[in-house]
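Hi support team,

I submitted a single chain yesterday and got back a structure, but I'm not sure I'm reading the token output correctly. Could someone confirm the output below corresponds to the sequence I sent? I've pasted both exactly as they appear in my results page.

Thanks,
R.
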Amino acid sequence: MNRRQLLQHTALATAAFAFSRDSFARMMYPADMDRYTADIIRLGSNENPHGPSPAARKAMMDTVADSNRYPWDMTAKLQEKLGAHFGLTAKHVIIGAGSSELLGVAATWAALKKGNAVAPDPTFRLWIPAASRLGIDIRMVPLDNKKVTDLQQLLDKADSGTRMIYVCNPANPTGTIVPAAQLREFIKRVPASCMILLDEAYTEFSSEPSMANMVDAHPNLVIAKTFSKAYGMAGARVGYALAHPDTIKELNSLQPWANAGASAVSLAGAIASIDDQKFVAYCVNENKKAKAILYAALEKAGMPYIPSSTSFVYFDTKPFGKDVRTLLESKNIFGTRIFEENTGWRRLSIGTVKEMEEVAKVLG
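Hi R., thanks for writing in. Yes, this is the structure output for that exact sequence:
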């Protein structure tokens, strides 16, 4: 493929990915909802309700005046910090405007190789429309009876034409997690010709470790991560992926400008956030307290739920006998979303302790 063809494919992928992203955004909240109304509780996008850390906020404000310069030095610094954070090097890191950009880049890389991709169902689907429009066949595999990603079934669904297997762990929308030992064995069993796209957006909320220490031994492993969740920077749009340096070069070649998606202000916030793990621990602890409030409310209301390793909870509304979405929205609480048609299972993001107390009051 020559450079012109590559750029054409990249442009097509970018357009397709933007379309799927915008469609996703419209699903979260009503189009006529005033997003700046203070009394609305937004629990639809798994955002960290505590925002960026104080250190990140200061770093971002201090960097605004330097936004007339390209932030090459800051990009390199963030890559170095992230590499060191995971026991890797800067060459193992690619930077993007949120992990969503990098999921799209990885899916494009797989689609250009022609073949099929395998993924659980339900799962985080933002990358799927763009990949499908580029011609890759998407094969969906049901979760097991506990709504956990079925790794064996993913392998069984794959064949010699499979170019990518996508796994979100901890899983979105269910909040379940595959233990590290099982995931490591799965990674070892996937053929080198097939990319493993491992989405670790919520790892910080779980007790299971990242698979980052496997990327050198498995060049087909790409781990997408983000500052949007535990670090509270969803609006700043900083994501990254970890992979073997040779794989990083392949992914960089599909970015219009390698590692240049994040702004100087966003990079400054991300750099400061890495050094403020105390704030991350605070957010994780607050998330646990707020989840406990929702768990208690769901139990009282007779709605089964899945204990979550993330910043959201998946629960079955059918036994409740009422339309939970309508009930919550009548009290300005938005975000409940269904992922499995013809079921009562819904996902709700975890807000602050006070916000979850409001949810509990409405459900009660």
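A quick pointer for reading it: The chain has twelve helices and 13 strands. Let us know if anything else looks off.

Best,
Support desk
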